Fold this sequence. Notes:
Layout: E1 5-16, E2 26-38, E3 43-47, H1 54-62, E4 69-74, E5 77-78, H2 84-91, E6 94-97, H3 111-121, H4 127-140, H5 157-169, E7 175-179, H6 187-204, E8 207-212, H7 215-221, E9 224-229, E10 232-238, H8 239-244, H9 249-256, E11 307-310, E12 313-315
Parallel strand pairs: 3-8, 3-9, 6-7, 7-8
Antiparallel strand pairs: 1-2, 1-4, 4-5, 9-10, 10-12, 11-12
Helix pairs in contact: 3-4, 3-5, 4-5
Amino acid sequence: MQPILEVKGLNKIFKVKSNKLLEKAKALQALSNISLSVFPGETLGVIGESGCGKSTLGKVIMGIEAPTSGSIEFEGNDILSTTKAEKRQLLKDIQIVFQDPYSSLNPRKTIEYLIAEPMVIHNIGTPESRREKVTELLELVGLSRYQAKRFPHEFSGGQRQRVNIARALALSPKLIVCDEPVSALDVSIQSQVLNLFNDLQKNLNLTYIFISHDLSVVKYISDRIAIMYLGNIVEVGTAEEIYKAPKHPYTNALFNAIPPESPLENAEVELLKGEVPSPFNKPVGCPFSTRCPKVQPCCSQGDIPFVDVSPTHQVACVLY
């Protein structure tokens, strides 16, 4: 099967101005040589600590941020080398659901306006057909057609996120980037929204990139999982492989940080020591080498290539 999205050698460097007079701007490398594939109909989960580059990856794929180097191919077309008109047409098939369900909605516009806006921008349909589409989308995400004339502040957090999902579906996309879409919601509402994502995927044949720092959420919804640390992907595999047999020391550290299910459980775990290195001064070689309990001398002597531990499981670690 050919991937619907393929990212190769993606780098993103931000220039951060100094607050000191005459001091040069510093380079912050948010993404380092990211390569991954997403296949039609699957959910690729992306896990990592805050600041590891997860959201930046989603924004670069969406075209919100321009990459410093690398390529992004969607259905065989290189998005970065196309004309502005071609890029606009390609990105119509890639939509995003943001983390904060309130700040991503214009509080001065009605729900009907917000959901129909992408269709207006792309000149799709007539005003009447767009109203019908809005009604259809509201009912699809579990809301009522009678709520179309309301404003965002009249909805709960879970309802607002359903509005965001309806807006993302307005252009009938093939790929949706979900940037921590349930992290701002109550736990009881999270499960409802996650089930909605699953139902929509089955009914509309959608493909997801699901970004989160919540291990249980990603395990529930993902087919494959990519582990990120300090702008690098360090391990990729199926959800079952990653959770049952994690290979990279950082992946093991993430799982060790999960609280035990029972308060009577007294399992000894080895927690990480030290702080995450500054992205302005990243370690040479493996980005995890300064905190890894199994570090080797060769870990800091150059880029660490991915190794196949199974046909569907790759890890960037010198231990394999």
